[in-house]
Design goal:
HD/PDEase_dom, mainly alpha, Hypothetical protein af1432, 12 helices, HD_domain, HD domain-containing protein
Length: 263
């Protein structure tokens, strides 16, 4: 079930700056509480995961660096709290999968394929049971946008899968998503925009993953980012995606106005 009962919600009525500060404080404390619960199941594994992320993702551009992994972890634990996931063992699965989900990202491998060897070795070294290891690997290898492009869907995703996937997708949209999109495009020498290069329709998994076909950064909004709001699987993820999606729509609209000289 993806609609578990929330653990608790802070009541912060109104739209004043004080109310927003109280809401932010509630959110911070809530995430801190859930982090403690996850770490309690295996604190050594969480610390090792953070070390692996820092080591393996160092030197990457800022679109897929260690900071991205840490944000996704925090988002995932926050979503887990909203979705009512409270078991330390279940939260550990969410936290570890979120932390190491991009360690073997195909975009940063030579053969354009996911490399799960580092993740699998880490999971064994920290002493996770076989079932836990398999669940984390299944989340990581199945959560990518490329899998839904190819219709290779997890028909009945677990709550843990949905939470980690939604967290990763939330970090791909909104203000952070805009920054990451142009950061990655810049790292690949992609043009900001070229009116002659149209967004691709009906992308196959192979075309989406191709490192050969040059695209513009602005086209990435049309090919992927604008689609993510409607691909969220948890109610908490859907709620958060609305605001981030609207931010991107406004940004892209303003981008075209300025590009054309109308603004």
């Amino acid at each position: 079930m993806l609609h578990a009962r929330p653990l608790f919600l802070c009541q912060c009525p109104g739209s004043s700056s004080t109310a927003r500060l109280v809401a932010a404080s509630c959110s911070f404390l809530h995430t801190a509480h859930i982090k403690m619960a996850a770490a309690a199941a295996n604190p050594a594994a969480v610390r090792r995961a953070e070390e692996v992320v820092e080591r393996e993702m160092s030197g990457r551009d800022a679109s897929h660096d260690a900071a991205h992994a840490l944000r996704v972890r925090d988002l995932a634990l926050s979503l887990a709290a909203e979705q009512g996931l409270s078991s330390p063992d279940r939260l550990l699965i969410v936290e570890l999968a979120a932390l190491v989900h991009d360690v073997g990202d195909y975009k940063y491998t030579k053969d354009n394929a996911e490399d799960m060897s580092i993740v699998e070795r880490f999971l064994e070294e920290v002493g996770l049971e076989e079932g836990q290891r398999e669940e984390i690997v299944a989340i990581i290898t199945g959560m990518g946008f490329k899998n839904e492009v190819s219709k290779n869907l997890n028909a009945e995703p677990t709550l843990e899968f949905a939470i980690v996937q939604d967290a990763d997708r939330l970090d791909a949209i909104g203000a952070i998503g805009v920054a990451r999109c142009f950061t990655y495009g810049g790292s690949k020498n992609s043009a900001l925009h070229d009116p002659k290069v149209l967004p691709r329709d009906n992308l196959s998994k192979e075309k989406y993953m191709s490192k050969e076909e040059k695209q513009t950064s602005i086209n990435h909004f049309h090919e992927k980012l604008f689609k993510l709001k409607d691909m969220m699987k948890t109610e908490a993820g859907k709620r958060r995606a609305e605001k981030r999606h609207k931010f991107m729509e406004n940004f892209v609209s303003e981008f075209y106005e300025e590009w054309s000289g109308r603004a």
